[in-house]
Design goal:
With 162 residues, the protein is of the alpha+beta class. The protein has two domains: 60 residues, NADH-quinone oxidoreductase subunit E (Arc Repressor Mutant, subunit A, Orthogonal Bundle), CATH 1.10.10; 81 residues, Glutaredoxin (3-Layer(aba) Sandwich). Helix content is 46%, strand content 11%. A four-stranded mixed beta sheet has the order 2-1-3-4, covered by helices on one side. Strand 3 and strand 4 form a beta hairpin. The protein is elongated. The termini are far apart.
Length: 162
Amino acid sequence: MQLFDGNELKKVAEIKAKYPESKAALLPVLWMVQEKQGWISQEAMQYVGDLLGIPNEHILGVVTFYTMFNNKPKGKYHLQICTNVSCMLRGGYELFNFVSDKLGIKNNEITDDGMFTIEEVECLGSCGTSPMMQVNNKDYYENLTTEKVENIINNFKTGHEN
């Protein structure tokens, strides 16, 4: 498997050069894989292991430990809904159940059209503006209501990203 092209391999070399051991470069290189593929497959883990000289077991442990890494495919829109204390007290579970019912999927499932995955997650660091949802590990939506979430999902469905 050749996952990275020449430019990406140069970036990996730059990342590795920042650290005394290649193991320290693992997180940013795994992030590169996920950004490129949307998730990190067993084959990609082996590729990264060969690239960095790290045992596959260690990489598997890292990928399965950190919730920011996906070890299976996700929908185009990965909706992570916080249900930790602040969000839970302000309707996080109700929000999660609303989205689950609206999309017809449960935790970590993908809609039939491949558009959405929902995931119940622990704290996303937005306690003062709960309940909240993170989309694709980058966009935060805060102070949510079911109406706001419905609008967000409808905008994604129609290609009008918020």
